[in-house]
Design a protein that fits this description.
- The protein is of the alpha/beta class.
- Helix 2 links the parallel strand 1 and strand 2.
- The chain starts with a helix and ends in an 11-residue tail after the last strand.
- The chain has a three-stranded parallel sheet with strand order 2-1-3, with helices on both faces.
Length: 102
């Protein structure tokens, strides 16, 4: 399902940001390539941006609602500043189900 969501955006020249489990960034890159995106080596801030949870929701090793909303605004504004009319943002929340009481 995400593949078609991203493919539509890539075809329209939109930016895509995917906040993902750090162990699944490779799989997310493969899905993007499968949707027609040609991932340049080292692409981190081009048309496709993959962000691991710790660099999005869990900065400072805890969830901060205000920081998460500010990050979303930052992502959307940076896409516009880079010349993209729209940014498609997908964020996974499975981290909230993990037992971090190790």
């Amino acid at each position: 399902m995400l593949r078609s969501f991203f493919k539509d955006g890539f075809d329209r020249g939109e930016k895509a940001t995917h906040i993902v489990d750090p162990e699944k960034t490779g799989r997310a890159s493969e899905a993007a390539r499968g949707s027609g995106y040609q991932c340049p080596a080292g692409d981190g801030h081009g048309q496709l941006e993959l962000r691991p949870w710790r660099e999005a929701y869990l900065r400072g090793d805890r969830f901060d609602q205000d920081a998460a909303v500010a990050l979303i605004e930052e992502i959307l504004q940076s896409g516009r500043s880079a010349g993209y009319a729209l940014t498609r943002l997908v964020g996974h929340m499975e981290w909230a189900l993990l037992d971090n009481q190790a």
